[in-house]
Structure formats: structure tokens, C-alpha cells
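cron nightly-structures :: item 1 of 1
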Amino acid sequence: SMEFEDKFQYRIPMYDILEFLWSLPAYKPSIIKLSQQVESGQMSSITPVFLRFINMMINDAIVQLDEGLQNLKTIKEIQDLKDSNEWERLTGEEKKQNDEKLDEASMYASNRNLLSMKTVHTLEIITNDITKPFVTMTMVDRMAAMLNYFLKELVGPESKEFIVKNREKYNFDPRELVSGIITVYINLSEEPEFCQAIPRDGRSFSMDLFDRALNVLRRLGKSREYVGLERMREKVKQYHEKQIIEEEILDDAPEEFIDPIMGTVMTDPVILPSSGNTVDRSTIVRHLLSEQYDPYNCETSIK
């Protein structure tokens, strides 16, 4: 929708301004100070501004990169069609429809990929100096899952579906994007909570994923990133092995110990004041980043 498109028009200049402010000694300490409110405020009823900002960046990255890649897939399909004998067997109207579809996909891919690059670059810059807000109980699982998903799409078996002609036309630089994502991994890898969260991601995580990423870095000659990712991989491997044992123990956990929304064992259960349902604190705090109501009773605000 146009409302959705308008929402993202200011994102690119916003990230450019933030990068500029980050380079100024007078402003960077203020941003870091703002981020420090997260540690003291994450348990309160008022969500810290910096936490909401992180949530927005993660949402941006997920939506934009996912849509950018889907449009690249469409572009590749039509490019391959045009290079095949099948193209000449199409009617004039069918060729016109495919050309219009290609133009639309090209426009969206260019826009989405540019914003994806900006978002990942901003995360690179920020996580180089600020890590704690990204590994709070509210954010750490989302952050790890997002990075795992992107890495899987870009270095996994399906990455061949995004190999298009003239990729610079679509603002798609997979090497730079992979390098940026891996840099964020490395920046956060000194935080134990982050390394523990990586293998908890049941959607995209596998140890093979990091083996593939290391092979990519080797081919690109990215020695610093290679060493950093290899060190993180060893930490993740240890946590993954421990997690497998813990999951076997928790397989028979009583139903009342399970978060009804996430389906995971609760570590910090809280009772929602309006509906009386019990959920894990991290679940409801994540919900409150976007909506100020009880997920079981949408008419009632949670303060």
C-alpha cells in the first residue's frame, strides 16, 4: 500500500543522518548514553526509546531484505525465460505482461535492497560500540534469528536463485551484505547471551550454515572476519551441544511451564493483569514494543 511505502521513504535519510551524527564526538556519547537506559529500563512498564529503535531496525531489515530477495527471484525467473527458446513461443501479450512484471520487480528490488544495505550497515556501526541492548531478553532471540535467516538465504543452497544479471542495477551486493551481517555477528559474539540464542533459532540455524559462511569469507579473502566468525562458531557449537541435552530433559515439561504464545519453557513467568494468562516476561515485553495491549484481550491496554 502507499501508506506502507511512505513509511519507508524517510528510513534511508534517517540512517544517513544517524551515521553522520555517530561520526561527531559531540553526539556519539549521547546516543551511547541513551542505549544505557535499556539495561535499567527493560523491566519497567515504559519501554526505553533505544529498545524501540532496535525493534524498528530489526523489523525493517526482515521486511526489506525478504522482499528484496523475493523480487530478485522474480527477476531471475524472467531473465532466464528471456534467454530460453520458450520466450519466442510466447504471444505478444504474454511478453508484455512479463516485461511489466520485470519492471515492477526491478523497482521494488532496487528500493528494498538499498534499504536493506543501509539497515545492515547501521547495525554494523552501532554494534561496534553498543552490544548490551541487543542481547536483552527482549531482543536477543529476534536478533539471532534475523541474522541466521539472512545468512541462510545469502550463503545457503537457495542463494543461486538470486544470481541476476546487472545486479548493481538492483542495488544488490551479496558480498557486502554477507560481510556486513557477519560483522554484526562478530560484534555481538563476546556476549554469551547472543551465542546461546543462535542455536535456539529453530527456523534457520545449523552448524553447516557457519561452515558455508566461512567458505565464502575464505574465497573473499576476508581474514579478519574469518577469524572472528570461526571463534564465534566454536562458542556456538558448545552451546548447541549443551542445548540438545537440555531439550531432551525438558521434553516432558508440564504444560503449565510452557509459554502459550512461543511454545517454549518459561524462565520468568508473569501473569497479565487484564486476562490473567501466564506468559514469559520476554514474550510480553517483545509484544509491548509494538502494541500496548494484552494479546488475549485487544481492548485492554497494558501499562
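cron nightly-structures :: done
The first strand starts at residue 269 and ends at 271.
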